Amino acid sequence: MGFRAHMGAGSITSNVKSDKTSVTILDGEERIQTGLRKMGAMLGDDVEIGCNSVLNPGTIIGRGTRVYPLSSVRGLIPENSIVKTGGVIVPME
User: Fold this and answer.
1) Which residue among 27, 60, 65, 91 has the highest number of C-beta atoms inside a 10 angstrom radius?
2) pLDDT digits (tens, 9 = 90+) for 41-72
3) What are phi and psi of 54, to 5 degrees?
4) Does 1 map to a domain?
5) Could you give the percent of the chain with pLDDT greater than 90?
6) Is the pLDDT assigned to residue 28 strictly greater than 90?
7) Rounded to whole angstroms, how far apart are CA atoms 28 and 10?
């Protein structure tokens, strides 16, 4: 967790895939192999995670990003973004 990062009440960070295979990080169409069976999430500085959100294995959230409550997040999320419910990611204005 980065400086001034915050995880809202009930948010969950999962670190193992349900099929127990190595965690991959999704960056658009690219899949980055970690070689790790366990890897949770990494949060940059000033990240805000909404209540009851789920951060799936291998999630990396760039600084200044906001995640709406009740969201399921995976992959590489760019800095200064808003992650809306349903997986919609928009740049912060």
Assistant:
1) 65
2) 999 999 999 999 999 999 999 999 999 999 99
3) -115, 125
4) no
5) 94
6) no
7) 28
Minimal CA–CA distance to 78: which of 51, 67, 69?
Answer: 67
On whether residue 15 sits in a domain, the answer given is yes
Phi-psi domain of 46 (left: phi exceeds 0; alpha: psi -120 through 50; beta: other): left
Q: Is residue 42 part of a domain?
A: yes
| CATH (domain of 59) | 2.160.10.10
**What does the pLDDT read at residue 93?**
82
The stretches of 8-72 forming alpha helices (DSSP H) are: none
Residue 78 lies inside a defined structural domain of this protein: yes
The range of the structural domain enclosing residue 50 comes to: 6-91
Residues in Cβ contact with 70 at an 8 Å cutoff, skipping those fewer than 6 apart: 50, 51, 52, 53, 85
